[in-house]
Amino acid sequence: MNIIETHNLTKIYKNKQIALNSANLKVPEGAVFGLLGPNGAGKTTTIRLLLGLHTPTAGSVMVFGEPMTPNAVDLRRRIGFLPTNPQFPKEMNPIEYLDFVGRLCGVPHEIRKPRLAGLLRAVDLLGASSQKVKGFSTGMTTRLGIAASLMSDPELLIWDEPTAGLDPEGHQHTIALIEELGQTKTILVSSHNLSDIKKVCDYVGILSDGKLIFNGLVRDMRQMARAVAIEIELEGDLDGFCQQLAAQHAALKWERQTNALRFSFMEGAVLAAELAQVLQIIAAYPAVTLIGVTSLQDEIVDAFINLLEEERAHGFSRIFDMAAADDAVHGGAASRPD
Hints:
- By secondary structure, this protein is of the alpha/beta class.
- The protein is built from 11 helices and 15 strands.
- The strands form 3 sheets. The protein has a 6-stranded mixed beta sheet with strand order 7-8-9-4-10-11, sandwiched between helices. Strands 1, 2, 3, 5 and 6 form a 5-stranded antiparallel beta sheet that branches. A 4-stranded antiparallel beta sheet has the order 13-14-12-15.
């Protein structure tokens, strides 16, 4: 079952800005889903549409199997939302604010108080629980927003750039929290940070200039990488070993870096088989000793860049392919403007 599903979701602001273009997004139940894209790609617009905060120009949004609209209050109560750079009443302290949120969500007093105390501990704000929000740093404000999004114990979490403004310790803590929550909840995390997506997400959707260019498993996206680079550190007779590589294994792509060799395996290669071949060559040459093997290229980054480049290169053909598909669905009848 898909907790979130959109069909040709489109948003055009004032006939001037196309923020989202025919997005068909699917977020399976229980997934930790990364909504990935450069700044300005349409991530925040997508989230506002998913929450019913904006009305689509075209297309539809289904959440929990029901249409999401501006009036779908009951659906929104089942969602915990963290906006980018959240704003809170400046004269309240964290306890007062979380109690206020809990009351708005209908959480009973006997549940509300222990829950807010546990959440403040979880986001490391116990020491600031009596401090007014107006004195909070950006990172503290984000952490309070995370706690607020969890006050109603929602089934679905939608967090927009949850690590923005956090120091390294807070960043690591938030990543660990997403991993923990992902065991019991469906989570959609918007980010432009590829490293975060790689760490916590099992599904990913990639936006480029308002167009959803990929929606699927992270492991499927990894397979779109065009090349993988591996550095193998050796000691011993590297000169002789390099001569043998050049003479007997001309198909391998490599370059020498002082006491290491960098091997590149192109798109479509089975990495395990290619690496095994290199290790067998090393094992058969007793004058060198293997010290270590290191991956030099993040395949997530490479696949992401590859997808963006393909989209920009083939954008026109995809537009006409989509138009042809729509025409087939409607029995060949061409739609005309009014």
